[in-house]
Amino acid sequence: MSKPWFAQYDAWVPTTIDADKYKNVVEMLLQAGERFADNVAFSSFGATKTYAEVLSLSRDFAAYLQNEIGIRKGDRVALMAPNMMAFPVAMIGILRAGGVQVNVNPMYTPRELEHQLTDADVDTIVVFSGSTGTLAEVIENTSIKNVIVAELDDLLDLGLPSPPVDERLQAPVAFLDAIAAGADMEFVAVDIEGDDLIYLQYTGGTTGLSKGAMLTHRNLVANIVQFECVAGDYIKFGEDVVVTAIPMYHIFALMVNTLSYFKFGATNVMITDPRDMPAFVEEWSKWKVSVFTGVNTLYNGLLHTPGFADLDFSALKICVGGGAPVQKAVSDKWKEVTGRHIKEGYGLSETSPILTTNPFGMTEFLSSIGIPFPSTDISLRDDDGNEVAQGEAGELCAKGPQIMKGYWRRDDETAECMTDDGYFRTGDIATMDENGFFRIVDRKKDMILVSGFNVYPNEIEAEVAALAGVLECACIGVPDEKTGEAVKLFVVKSDDSLSADAVTQYCRERLTGYKVPKQVVFLDELPKSTVGKILRRELRNY
Prior knowledge:
- 27% of the residues lie in helices and 24% in strands.
- It contains 14 helices and 26 strands.
């Protein structure tokens, strides 16, 4: 069946892909490792490991997991670490042993960690030394029996200090010791099918406790092949340099930067602490970077960091934004500095993650999440599940080989998020124009109702972001006696002289009356997740 977005595909993009091109992700990674054996696979703090070294180390770790711990196909293994050399080595080892990786945010609170480890029924965790204090707080309330501790300097040998391991943990094993032991152990390759689980990817839990999206090997193979088809000649196999500042435990960086660019033979430059912007810019300056991914706030932060505009961007070809809307003001400035616009994409943990992106061959910026990936169908539905008319807003529902198997041990919630005809309900409200480009107008829960009119925060934020003197902004709905709800806007200034009246007047000139913020509050910074997404729900505390 023809779709309106097919006409917008770049010439090299097919309408469908083979989701079974590889039997599993491990097969794909091993083939890439052999093809690019001598290439640098990962760089951390200037120390590097080749593809051959990564495969060898991951083999030894997999052997340790199989022999010493007894990991078998389907067993969950948690990985709780920032972007550091141990992460990809541990990950590939877990997958080669047949394990299902449970990605854990190293910044989690004890409560969040306990819930995730208990929910996933995990008995083995690979944890960054700096997160062992959190683990020690809750380990007795979980099923964890095996603790493997990774330090910042592991596999680097640079003498980097790492936070001490919490003394409350009983007999933790050092990651390097596990690898050394595994080198003398037999490794048995595991027969992994496409329908077998690869990750439990926990959602943000904005509507309650986080849920584990069950992602399969086939889901990830499909999304990687889809991405490869869409990027086309923008990929230079064995030559690309990709900067990974988004956490690798996040599905965006996991699928695009970590897995896809490993398949493509790229050098992956890992940024452990992207909040240290001067150090980030210094690291970037050492490489001929060709690919960068990030969220809007990360792009904006770099643009406001001294020295960034002076870097050499001659090799930069791909800049992808996801996780949150890319604002036109930010993309315009990025283009001015680097020569490239930001390609906005869209997806969720449940969709491995990418569903849509703007065409890579498009040179201008479009305030849109783009068009669906090959083999992906999107349908906009009303509250009764009926497709809405052209141009009308409806819940974005998606079908494709990258859609999760379901939520871990939550059949009721899985059923609730699927339509009768097999589409996944994203919870995001979108429109589609006549050319097949989609735009998110907002999440259902973020919509503000002013005197019966729907107000979407994204629209207001995109306008205000273009005002001189505004560094960042976000808005929410607050109770109002006259209108039911009113718009409250939070602004971080880059110019101290900017006043609330000036912001309000600017909005009056560009927005319909009911959309103009009734309150303007200045903050030193906006609350954000570890990935850099602005947390609107936390603004309700201000």
